[in-house]
């Protein structure tokens, strides 16, 4: 199985991920990029001083100008850099935000989207928002376009249907058939549409900020710009990192009582990992499928 050593533990994932995060912070500092902890990473820092115990990813925000500067670094990273920057310019990538990814590792998230990358930190762009009807519609249309784009990248082989039937997993099959028969514009059309909306989003000015790729114009996820005007230090797994001074308002608006633990049944990772390997040069889809077949997972 090509020296495959088995799936890593949660602690091993977190340890490797912290190394990626530390190097991303170093990159941001070197280039004057102002980052902020976001989402569950911000909750983890405030509530736990690190990861939420059952979480296994790290997220940051960059304001649009810094986000564009971050993307521009893809071409200036040394050839021998252990990292790469992934976004829509990377063929086959399907999400409305970038990733800072470790080359010497392999993650395949969705079985039906054969895109392989390395262990990563998510980097979300934060844009201005003015809460007009036009702005809200643009946010909704943008998210729908990304969902359609991702769907256009799904691939299903006969073997996928057969394995689902053998495993008694019949629930996904109707959706898979829809994907195969889906008569709609394909990825090049959605890609063009998204790039056009990107240009509109960059021109919007307002007193609020919003991450357009995450929600459909949900005003519950729109935040005053002033909450992000200043950063303060906070500890994350022993590393001193930056969070926006208005984090309490941000987390309360997004999550409610974020200091309260969710029900025990909900204390699980929500991230899909069809395959994960931390310390092996990037594998191909064919290698991964061969490994999973030998393990009896296909």
Description:
Helix content is 38%, strand content 17%. By secondary structure, it is α+β, with helices and mostly antiparallel strands. The chain has one domain. It is globular, with a radius of gyration of 20 Å.
In short:
With 298 residues, the chain is of the alpha+beta class. Helices cover 38% and strands 17% of the residues.
First-last Cα distance: 15 Å
Individual helix count: 9
Strand content: 15-25%
- Say what oligomer this is: single chain
H and E order: HEHEHEEEEEHHHHEEEEHEH
Helical residue percent? 25-40%
Q: Look at the structure and give the mean pLDDT.
A: 90
Instruction: Name the poorly predicted regions.
Output: none
Q: Per the principal axes of the C-alpha atoms, what is the gross shape?
A: globular
Number of domains: 1
Structural key phrases:
298 residues, 3-stranded antiparallel beta sheet, 12 strands, 9 helices, 17% strand, 7-stranded mixed beta sheet, globular, alpha+beta
């Amino acid at each position: 199985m090509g020296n495959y050593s088995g799936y890593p533990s949660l602690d091993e994932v977190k340890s490797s991920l912290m190394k990626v995060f530390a190097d991303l912070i170093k990159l941001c500092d070197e280039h004057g990029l102002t980052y902020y902890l976001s989402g569950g990473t911000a909750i983890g820092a405030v509530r736990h001083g690190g990861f939420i115990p059952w979480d296994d990813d790290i997220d940051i925000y960059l304001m649009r100008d810094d986000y564009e500067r971050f993307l521009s670094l893809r071409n200036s990273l040394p050839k021998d850099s252990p990292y790469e920057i992934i976004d829509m310019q990377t063929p086959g990538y399907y999400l409305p935000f970038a990733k800072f990814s470790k080359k010497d590792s392999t993650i395949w998230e969705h079985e039906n989207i054969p895109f392989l990358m390395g262990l990563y930190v998510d980097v979300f762009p934060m844009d201005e928002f003015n809460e007009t009807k036009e702005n809200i519609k643009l946010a909704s249309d943008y998210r729908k376009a990304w969902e359609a784009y991702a769907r256009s990248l799904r691939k299903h082989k006969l073997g996928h249907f057969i394995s689902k039937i053998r495993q008694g997993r019949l629930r996904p099959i109707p959706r898979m058939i829809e994907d195969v028969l889906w008569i709609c514009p394909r990825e090049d059309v959605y890609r063009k549409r998204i790039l056009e909306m990107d240009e509109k989003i960059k021109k919007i000015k307002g007193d609020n900020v919003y991450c357009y790729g995450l929600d459909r114009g949900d005003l519950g996820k729109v935040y005053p710009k002033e909450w992000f005007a200043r950063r303060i230090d906070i500890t994350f797994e022993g590393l001193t990192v930056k969070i926006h001074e208005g984090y309490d308002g941000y987390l309360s608006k997004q999550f409610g009582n974020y200091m309260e633990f969710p029900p025990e049944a909900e204390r699980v990772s929500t991230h899909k990992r069809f395959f994960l390997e931390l310390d092996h040069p990037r594998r191909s889809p064919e290698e991964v499928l061969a490994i999973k077949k030998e393990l009896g997972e296909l």
